[in-house]
Design goal:
With about 240 residues, the protein is of the alpha/beta class. It has one domain (about 10-235): Leucine-rich repeat, LRR (right-handed beta-alpha superhelix). Helices cover about 20% and strands about 20% of the residues. The strands form four sheets. It has a four-stranded mixed β-sheet with strand order 1-2-4-6, with helices on one face. The protein has a four-stranded parallel β-sheet with strand order 8-10-12-14, with no helix packed on it. A hairpin with a 5-residue loop joins strand 1 (about 75) and strand 2 (about 80-85). The radius of gyration is 23 Å and the shape is elongated.
């Protein structure tokens, strides 16, 4: 009699070979959902910009299902946005309509030398994977989130800066920042480059800076700070 039932050996093979397809489909669904959210967030921001700026982003199309081939956008191999780089792109507008919470895999944001203005959205603090944020040479105002430098910014440095634990570079130089350096800086253990010179910062340096051991650049000149330098800064280490 013909045996129509698969053997135990065949069942094992079928089960093993089926799992890669399940896994691939699972990752595809996650990537597709993330991509759709990224497209929606970027298009919402685009239409909020001034008309000339919208023309500069002509590759950002309504009929797109992925932003990975748009100008200024980079993605990982799963189609998730990891970089926005609009350096010197002449974009004019605010960031209030850019929903950063849709970009949980962002590693790098560069909006250096544009015409962005207004306050910064609070959800930029929630980008836990972010290692580089450059909004230099714009016209922002208000409270300063992590790693923003060379803007016409004013206000104190928020303690929530310590939530961005993956930061490696912090550029807040040549602004109008005042008040003390928050103790939460001690949470930034991967920080190697910090430039806070030419502000109005005051008070003692927080002892929590001792938690940061691999300094390469440490610039605090032209402020009103007091107290001893962190131990690892005095040692020199990798400082240049």
């Amino acid at each position: 009699m013909l045996n129509i039932f698969p053997s135990a050996h065949m069942l094992i093979i079928l089960i093993i070979t089926a799992f890669p397809f399940v896994s691939a489909k699972y990752h595809f669904n996650i990537s597709e959902t993330s991509s759709n959210a990224n497209v929606a967030a970027l298009l919402t921001w685009k239409v909020s910009l001034e008309s000339e700026s919208q023309l500069l982003l002509s590759s950002w199309m309504n009929n797109s299902t992925s932003p990975c081939y748009w100008d200024c956008i980079r993605c990982d191999n799963l189609g998730r946005v990891t970089e926005m780089n609009m350096s010197d792109y002449h974009i004019k507008g605010t960031l209030q309509h850019l929903d950063f919470s849709s970009f949980s895999y962002l590693l790098k944001i560069v909006f250096f030398d544009n015409s962005l203005y207004g306050t910064l959205p609070t959800n930029i603090f929630n980008l836990s994977k972010l290692s580089h944020l450059d909004l230099g040479f714009n016209d922002f105002s208000g409270t300063i989130p992590p790693e923003i430098g060379n803007n016409r910014l004013s206000g104190s440095i928020p303690s929530s800066i310590g939530n961005s634990t993956k930061l490696k570079g912090l550029y807040l130089c040549q602004n109008r920042l005042y008040g003390p350096i928050p103790p939460s800086f001690g949470n930034l253990k991967f920080l190697v480059d910090m430039r806070l010179f030419s502000n109005k910062l005051n008070g003692p340096l927080p002892v929590e800076l001792e938690n940061i051991a691999n300094w390469e650049m440490f610039e605090l000149s032209d402020n009103n700070l007091t107290g001893p330098l962190p131990y690892h800064v005095c040692l020199g280490g990798f400082l240049t």
